[in-house]
Every structure is written in C-alpha cells, then in structure tokens.
Specification:
The chain has 333 residues and is mostly helical. The protein has 14 helices and no strands.
Length: 333
Amino acid sequence: MTTPFRHTEPLPPKSATGRVAEVYEQITRDFGIAGPPTFVVLSSAPELLAPAWALMRESLIAGPGSRTGKEVAAFGVSAANKCPFCVDAHTVLLHATGDHALAERLARGLEPEDAGHARVLDWGRRTRVPGAAGEPYPFPREEAPGYLGTALAFHFINRIVSALLTENLFPADAQRLRPVRSLAGRSLSRAVRRPAVPGASLALLDEPGAGPEWAGGTAVGPAYAALRSAALAGAGLLDADEQDLVRRAVGAWDGAHPPLAADVFPDRSERPGARLALLAALAPYRITDEDVTAWRRPEHTDHCLVHLVAYGAFAAVDRIETALSEPAARKAS
C-alpha cells in the first residue's frame, strides 16, 4: 500500500482523538475533504495542526474576497514555490468553484483571460520575493485580510507539503487527466460554495492573540498569530548558533530558489538541524532521506521533525509577511 507521506508516519484520521479529531471534523465539513494529507501530516503536532487549519479556513474559506480570486492567488503562490501537489489541488478547487475554463487555462500554463484574475495570479507569484508584492494590491483593500492570509497560509502549507508529502495529488498521477480534475472538483463544489461563518475555527486555538494589523480585526489575525507562535517554538530544537545561522540566512534571502549547482546549505554532517530548517524555508523539495537521517536521533519523534520543518517554513513566512505589511505600516504612520 502506497502512502503520500515522506519521513513521517502520522496516525490514520480514524484513530484521531481530542483536538485532532475536532479539527478533522471541521475540515471535513468546511473543506469538503475527509483527512486531507496536507493536514494529516501535521497531526503528530496538534499545536501546529489546529492553527494551520485555522489560518487557511479563516482566510481562504471564510475570509473576505471571492473564493475564485483567492484560489487564483493560492495557485500563484504554489507555482512560485514549486509545489506541484498544491498547484494541482488549487486547479481542482477552481473546478469546484465552477470556474472550469479558468482552472484548465492555469493547468495548461496559460494566463487567465480575465484581467483581474491575471493581476491576482501575478501578485500571488510575486509574494515569494520579499518586498515585491506590497500595496497597491490587485484587490480591494477591505479584502486584504482574506488575500494576504491565504497567501501566507500557502507559503507555509507549500513548504510542509514539499518537505513531507509526495508530489502526486492522486494515485498514479491521475490529476494530470482533465476529466479527473473536473470530476474531483465537482465532488467538492457543494462544500466550496457553502457560506462559512468566520471565526468558527478559533475555538480550536489556545489564547491566539490579536494578530497583525493587516488582518483588520478579522478572525484571520488570531489564526495567524497562533500559527506563528506554534511554528516558531520549533526553534528550541536548534542550539543558539544554529538559530542565528537560520535567522541570518532567511533574513538575507531574496526569494530566489537556491542554485542546484552548489549546495549552499549547512553540511548535514556538521549542522543537520540547521540544514533541515533552512531547506524547509528556502527549498523544501530538496529535503532527502539522508538529510532527515543525519539529524534524527532516538529522541527525535515525528512530533520533533514536523516542528523543525514548521519552524523553517515559518521563518520564510515571517520574512514574506514583514515585507508584505511594511508598506501598509508606513502608510498608516
């Protein structure tokens, strides 16, 4: 039996209890998919699972802005991050919104015919480059919490998926077939088109805090704050020198994908933890079995690995978020 998971062995959703079971129940109802691997892979760390789901729900599903527009933004983010699993998933979800022609244009690598969608797609791609996607936004200012929250949610999710899942959305690469994409989308259409009440996921979080100013007092803010707090706690798996190395490298990152010709990451035999965290931040698709094995010790459970990858992933999100929100902060002052 094949599994979509790499480097970890999460428990099946049917075995979930407590908060994890509550999260799965809400995902099934509001996302329309029972036990999606993108969230199951986080289940060994419930303190990460709940806010990761909350940020996606409160921005993409329940946040301000059209679902189609936010799916286009998420498609652009996922393409920029070279996450084929998520690119295919958003193609299917665009089918679910009823925008079949748009979904297939994007699947074929074409630009949207609608100029507004084209601007949103371009914005989503540019968010990977710190400072390249600030205001003016290609959507109304009042919809910024939904769009920014969606983009940041998928900058995190893309990295988790690329590090810990295989590339195929469906077995045997079936998502490459247009009828499969369309049929899968139609099966989700009822859930995608059903109105979602903002804030319903916040009960799953522990004292999340208000969140950043760009969230505008919406439920996106507490969800973002909770994920930031939980993810950055993974820094405790590194010593002070390793943490400093990661901070400096991510702080100097310009959004580019590291060159394949030279290994610019710390040596796995010397600083395997810092190497994993930086790979998760900048090139998670390059994490190998050898990288994980070099770091993992008997005391390192799946919980630890998920936390270390999440720490690296959110270090990049933090860099992107700061650059996205700086123009608005300056304008407000």
